[in-house]
């Protein structure tokens, strides 16, 4: 069964497409915005912006380190730099440049990583961003956003441009089930309760919000009342929403298309241990690279499915 | 005429991936090799190093036939996978053919871990279909495996994975790293006092990665005479022509000052490729670069022109187009 | 008061010095070992090895990306590559190379990062590895080791060379108080109980083990029984030791010279939430870069002291 | 003769660092400036751009005097800090002096955020003492602040920190990033249609970083005529002579093929530095490189020779040696 089907969601835009559309649409109004690309603008979807505003778009070729520091230089001269590549190449291949040319000076650079997660499919591990959230959160002062669907990505794109300071936006390649209305709000740092419930809370972001909603549907059928939180901002984390979940539902499952280490799960765990210890289960990629294959098959094989979430939840509920 | 049977078992296991059904399925399949009427393409051991007998060496015409076979494999497997980078693979066919079948590389497809083998590193990892095609023809695994390209469970991943497929010498796919890896292998041969040589193929767009220039400088420091790099200068990168995206211009002028021996050739001419590799073979006191000017999608250019996209980056030929392409190559 | 003084520890070698001595001493026996440096061998202390075995030592200049991939190439040809730089430059500047040339192929490369933490002092944030543990743990299959003193670093160096597969060893710049005997054992993945206790457990690694011991001394004076765990391996984590601490002492403080995100604290939190939820407090750098200054002054200013640990512990004990 | 009073307030606050006591202590101190008998060194606004009047321009002799002053500051502040990189700072003194005081850079020390200013990026950030010395003499802050170098709380960190010290244009210290940052600033000036120019100083060891070569290629693509880079080729890097560690040889031969205008000069000759900067100023259709051949520790070489270490990398002069050095410079 396709992601989101069980909970009645329809497939919509990929988050990278929604970002690309929003960026282009905002381009005229946000005159300080420039883009810096590393030969993958047709994949990250900065291309429409670049075509509309060629004087504000720079493609420096396959050279991610230079790409990021150029973006930092532009930002230090007052520009709002949007620098985009595959999440894996942006975060992994230009990490020190993000650290020193962007995060340490606290410049207004918007880091955008597409092709996050294993759902990109056939290209395989070299192109999959599975550690990007851990890396982005390890940069002091950088806000980290992982959106679930097209509408919220559009809103997040605007919120990101309005936010002063460095941010990271994680985007996916495949079409995503639509969860939010077209005119939805987006507040950095404020989790969305996409479903209320009182026995257990599923905390997810990205594509996994749909998996969590499917799991919730399945669990409700079995008589459990399930809360689903879209924790679209990993940093700064919405501690209040987590504490409320711990106190009010007593059990938490965290679901993400990311390695176990340094992802949303680890952030939630620290908040829970510090503020209100309750049992938490984690559904994620663990500590492994994936492989080539079709996106759905990979999610299945590596356990990033509604079924896994249901199992984890039932483990806590029993 | 059958080549050696192969058994590409997973000697190195992959964390989280316990099943490799597609490999098993083909491990005992007949090996078709290159269908040229030669008995086997396995170089024989001579004085503890593997050398090809003179009478085993292939003529230019035979190499061209293999090249055509590789081109067909490339098109078939990417169209079957419905993804991949055929045009990036096609430009490099002559170079890869000459290396694997022209007697320039010592290897044993049945003993891929033989320590004294020569190494081939495909730094532009997205062009791996050309490498899989060559490996199949060389006897590393059955050609039937090619049609499992990019399928879940197959060892023929979208980019080369050293851990899962014996004979792959470097896990690439993030551009820019292959020359450095090859340099490390060349230095290892020095430490071990073996005669291993290393060959690295790099994309012209990939030359934008600073790491390649770091490796150029370091290879020169260590005067690694057993390292040969080939730039597949096909004039395109992902988002357009290299002259529009990042024009590196004349590679020879840029690389000679780094202390390398440099040749510039037509890399889609088997004659020129073989000549250049011979010339490079004779240079042993410094690293060697071959700037191989090619056409992206060479072999099926009229079809790409017809389709209005002479870059055709990262997309398979639709079935009908693939059929035309195969016909064109026959 | 100097680190370790309260608990009667004497200053010994810096962990980087102990590593350098051990590497050189093991060089003759471990004939497959080669070193790859990026113009800082006199800082990381690979220099003695390089002088003793010049044919097995490569200094590729200020080019960390190349450095790491060269080490990967050497390892793919059967060498045990030891590649060393400042933690910040090794992990941040060559992350993608570690990912693709080392971790993904699972090669036998020993990554060694010196100058970790803010205790390096005057050189300031650009040279401080404060995110290296988060980054190293985000590499599937890489073992991550953070040693506390000279003797254990020597033992860890040998254990690392004996271990097949990629590892990361984190080293400090300043002299470290001596906790272990000269002939101590070191087992990757097995935490050491450096002090028994039953009211609370302090889990630490690196220089912070001494801070934890000082804190334990102070807390014992106030009548609390305090266990101190040297969690020298962050990956694979010693789950059993953490679960025992949670069950037997009911409270945990995690202390590390690292950002909050993705460090030891986050790993402990995930284990605790999953296996036996109890209150945990965290003493770390939080989410900030530090600054220039003397090492002790910086530890004080950024709260990486025994006092901070005592406060955190008392918060849990009250 | 007093220069402008300065008040280097923390306009950009640092997370986790709320106190800056050392700055406050010196913020109202007298500004000594460069003691040359000139009234002020603040270029005046002319037609909405800041230009120095002809009669304000300093002679070569005056520049040499400033250079000597900077050298003294470098030695004093690193010895006071008991850490830092005096030799790396000393080699670049002529270049930095000419840029800040020779009329090549438009800036206003009292308005460090003036958008149309020219930018100076010290890519080899460990040489920041030379920059702090120049900034103090130019009036960004009082010279008394120099002796707080590297002390806890001081804005004069061990490497330049854009966030804490107005007038610093890039946070460096991880080598290799400055040219890219400068390129971004040069492109921003193009987008904004301002006349801002950018100057970047790079170490010769630092040239090993591939990112610099990425930036060289990209700057050429964008033909940034407002970007000038200077390689401080002092012949040494951290672990030895560049010719032993990573020999980049002749930078001019390597960089010209990247499409840059390149000059090679004696960078410890104020005459040659000023001439080269004038020549570069006149080239506006491509990026410009000055290969500045210098001596690491220039100004106190006899003392380094006496100490048996002509690299003297990353260590301050012991007090007695510093005293000798100051005497030598007087
Ligand atoms: C580090 C990195 N950045 C970006 C990519 C995405 N990418 C894959 S192929 C490609 C273009 C490669 O161009 P070139 O090297 O000329 O090879 P060609 O396909 O033309 O043979 C890009 C940008 C990548 N794989 N790795
Ligand atoms: C990315 C990075 N790698 C290593 C270092 C450590 N380091 C600081 S200075 C230096 C040597 C610099 O040599 P060079 O560029 O020639 O400058 P010089 O000191 O000779 O002026 C090194 C390796 C660093 N700061 N950044
Ligand atoms: Mg190309
Ligand atoms: Mg130098």
Mind explaining what this structure looks like?
The complex is a heterotetramer, with two copies of chain A (318 residues) and two copies of chain B (330 residues). Helices cover 40% and strands 19% of the residues of chain A. With 318 residues, chain A is of the alpha/beta class. Chain A has two domains: 11-177, Rossmann fold (3-Layer(aba) Sandwich); 192-317, Rossmann fold. In chain A, helix 9 (208-221) links the parallel strand 10 and strand 11. In chain A, 72% of the residues are buried. The longest helix of chain B is centred in the first third of the chain and has 22 residues, at 60-81. With 330 residues, chain B is of the alpha/beta class. Chain B has twelve helices and nine strands. Chain B has helices at 21-26, 60-81, 86-90, 93-101, 128-138, 178-192, 210-221, 242-245, 251-255, 270-282, 301-306, 319-329, and strands spanning 44-46, 49-51, 119-122, 198-203, 227-233, 236-237, 240-241, 261-266, 288-293. Helix content of chain B is 36%, strand content 12%. Chain B has a single domain (59-329), classed as Rossmann fold (3-Layer(aba) Sandwich). Chain B starts with 20 loop residues before the first helix and ends with a helix. Chain B is globular and about 50 Å long. Chain B has a five-stranded parallel β-sheet, sandwiched between helices. The complex binds thiamine diphosphate (2 copies) and magnesium ion (2 copies). One thiamine diphosphate sits between chains B (88, 91, 124, 126-127, 173-176, 203-206, 232, 234, 236-238, 296, 313) and A (39-40, 62, 64, 89, 93).
């Amino acid at each position: 069964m396709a992601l989101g089907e069980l909970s009645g969601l329809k497939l919509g835009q990929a988050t990278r497409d929604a970002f690309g559309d929003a960026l282009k649409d905002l381009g005229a109004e946000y005159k300080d915005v420039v883009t810096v690309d590393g030969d993958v603008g047709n994949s990250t979807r900065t291309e429409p912006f670049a075509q509309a505003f060629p004087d504000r778009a720079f493609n420096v070729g396959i050279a991610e380190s230079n790409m990021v520091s150029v973006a930092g230089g532009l930002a230090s001269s007052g520009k709002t730099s949007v620098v985009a590549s595959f999440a894996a190449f942006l975060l992994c291949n230009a990490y020190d440049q993000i650290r020193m040319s962007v995060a340490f000076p606290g410049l207004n650079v918007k880091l955008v990583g597409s092709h996050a997660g294993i759902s990109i499919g056939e290209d395989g591990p070299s192109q999959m961003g599975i550690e990007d959230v851990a890396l982005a959160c390890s940069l002091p002062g950088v806000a980290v956003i992982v959106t679930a669907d097209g509408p919220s990505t559009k809103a997040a794109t605007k919120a990101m441009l309005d936010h002063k300071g460095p941010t990271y936006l994680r985007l996916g390649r495949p079409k995503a089930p639509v969860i939010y209305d077209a005119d939805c709000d987006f507040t950095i740092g404020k989790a969305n309760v996409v479903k209320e419930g009182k026995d257990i809370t599923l905390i997810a972001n990205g594509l996994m919000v749909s998996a969590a909603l499917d799991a919730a549907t399945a669990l409700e059928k079995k008589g459990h009342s399930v809360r689903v939180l879209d924790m679209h901002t990993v940093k700064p984390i919405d501690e209040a929403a987590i504490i409320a979940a711990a106190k009010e539902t007593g059990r938490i499952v965290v679901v993400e298309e990311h390695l176990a280490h340094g992802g949303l799960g680890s952030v939630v765990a620290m908040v829970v241990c510090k503020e209100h210890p309750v049992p938490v289960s984690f559904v994620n990629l663990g500590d492994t690279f994936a492989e080539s294959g079709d996106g759905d098959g990979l999610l299945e094989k590596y356990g990033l499915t509604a079924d896994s979430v249901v199992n984890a939840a039932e483990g806590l509920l029993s | 005429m059958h080549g050696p049977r192969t058994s590409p078992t997973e000697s190195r296991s992959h964390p989280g991936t316990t099943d490799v059904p597609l490999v098993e399925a083909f491990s005992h399949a007949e090996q078709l090799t290159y269908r040229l009427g030669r008995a086997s393409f396995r170089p024989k051991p001579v004085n503890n190093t593997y050398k090809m007998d003179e009478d085993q060496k292939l003529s230019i015409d035979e190499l061209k036939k293999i090249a055509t076979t590789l081109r067909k494999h490339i098109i078939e497997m990417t169209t079957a996978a419905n993804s991949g980078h055929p045009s990036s693979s096609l430009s490099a066919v002559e170079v890869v053919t000459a290396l694997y079948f022209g007697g320039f590389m010592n290897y044993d497809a049945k003993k891929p871990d033989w320590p004294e083998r020569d190494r081939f590193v495909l730094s532009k990892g997205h062009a791996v279909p050309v490498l899989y095609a060559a490996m199949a023809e060389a006897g590393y695994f059955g050609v039937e495996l090619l049609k499992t390209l990019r399928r879940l469970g197959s060892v023929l991943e979208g980019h080369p994975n050293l851990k899962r497929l014996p004979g792959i010498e470097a896990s690439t796919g993030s551009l820019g790293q292959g020359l450095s890896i090859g340099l490390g292998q060349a230095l290892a041969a020095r430490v071990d006092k073996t005669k291993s040589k290393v060959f690295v193929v790099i994309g012209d767009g990939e030359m934008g990665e600073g790491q390649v220039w770091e490796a150029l400088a370091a290879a020169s420091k260590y005067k690694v005479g057993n390292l040969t790099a080939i730039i597949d200068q096909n004039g395109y990168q992902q988002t357009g022509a290299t002259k529009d995206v990042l024009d590196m211009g004349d590679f020879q002028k840029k690389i000679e000052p780094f202390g390398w021996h440099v040749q510039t050739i037509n890399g889609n001419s088997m004659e020129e490729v073989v000549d250049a590799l011979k010339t490079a073979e004779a240079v042993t006191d410094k690293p060697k670069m071959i700037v191989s000017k090619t056409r992206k999608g060479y072999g099926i250019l009229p079809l790409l022109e017809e389709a209005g996209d002479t870059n055709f980056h990262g997309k398979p030929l639709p079935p009908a187009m693939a059929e035309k392409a195969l016909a064109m190559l026959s």
